[in-house]
Amino acid sequence: MASMGPDIRKRTVSGAARGRKEIKMRKAGLRTLGFVSALLLGSSITVMAESDGMEIIEAEGDAGYASGLVTGTRIPEEYLYEGLRLVDGKWIYVRNNAKDSSVNGLVYYEAGKEWFYVRDGEVDLALTGFAEYDGGQFYIAGGRVCREASGLVQDPGTKEWRYVAEGQVQRQYTGLAQYDGAWFMLAEGVKQESFSGLYPYDGAYFLIADGQILNSYSGLFQYRDAWYFIADGMVSSYTGLAEYDGAWFYIANGMLNSSFTGNVKYNGSWFYIENGVLRTDSPGAALLVKLQADRDACKSNAESVLSYVNQYRSEVGASALVLDEDLCLAAALRAQEMADTNVLSHTRPDGSSCFTVLEQFSIPHRASGENIASGYADAQSVCNGWYHSEGHYRNMVSGNYGRIGVGMAVSKNGMPYWVQLFGD
């Protein structure tokens, strides 16, 4: 029967993927030639040509590769594929239907939507570590970019710990990161195991040892030329006393204050500090011990004075005052100063105002007042004297005050000195 169109003839070559078979084809009357090369992976290849005179001139060698000159050839698309393909249980990189051993690095597998590490044209399934690609660094596990990996990951080769998010090292990140219940210091995505000291982060300072926050440490820590108070691995804003190596030190806002000399209250008691160190063998320490003893001895006098003052206040409708221990200590110091100098004055021996004693004992105040007297033998008589003095009486009944401290000291010549200190 006569052909009404082009005659399509085909030849099929099949066999194991070994060796090479050359197929030379010639077609009379066609002007163009094409070249086909195909890797036969245990299947068959069909070479098709639109012609009415295709002739196979020669075919020799073992099946495995087919190549030759073909005219008017249409090659099946699967033999034009470039990328990863599973062959005999191995993933290889195929280009021009052959394994391309020149390929090394990360390769994207479109079908699986994953990245694989290829070495010499074959996925390195044994590789676990890090690989560079396009300016980034990625974590590889079993030859595959491990997108589920987030946190700190150790490089099996360098033993470095790197900060990974969705399989990629976060090189742009410098700071602290939490991993497995602990916090670590990172610089450009790598744990800084060589760093020990204080590290600033998010408005605070943290104590780092070998790249990790020492959450278990609380106490004093020296860094460079200063001492810091650490609480649970972080510099604290603590103000008070702290013990270190058998001594006690004054801490102000988290730092040892070596310039401070004065009185500090700690756990309900007052201590004398000299140049930031608690002293028990100095005149200031001895005075403080005496003042606390005098305050306690004067407690009955103070309570009696309080009773009279609150009686006066009730007469004018003012609320009752409460006895404040720290104000009593300050009043005891003021009374002792006057007894030592035998001078009744609102000015202290150093020339400062009487109210500086409040600062000396860290007593907060917005409103304050002082009444003083000398020569009175007991609480009743001294309160009666103040009651009949306009300025002193005004202090005792003022609505600006809510607390009172009372002190009394006797000079060497037997003169009693009395002090009332008022605070809001």
Q: How is this structure best described in words?
A:
- There is one protein chain.
- The chain is an alpha+beta fold.
- The protein folds into 4 domains: 46-79, no CATH class; 84-174, Ribbon (left handed beta-beta-3-solenoid), CATH 2.10.270; 197-278, left handed beta-beta-3-solenoid (Ribbon), CATH 2.10.270; 283-423, CAP (Pathogenesis-related Protein p14a), CATH 3.40.33.10.
- The strands form 12 sheets. It has a 4-stranded mixed β-sheet with strand order 3-6-2-5, with no helix packed on it. Strands 35-37-38-36 form a 4-stranded mixed β-sheet. A 3-stranded antiparallel β-sheet has the order 1-4-7, with no helix packed on it.
- A hairpin with a 2-residue loop joins strand 20 and strand 21 (182-187).
- Helix 1 (283-297) packs across helix 3 (325-341) and helix 2 packs parallel to helix 5.
- It starts with 7 loop residues before the first strand and ends with a strand.
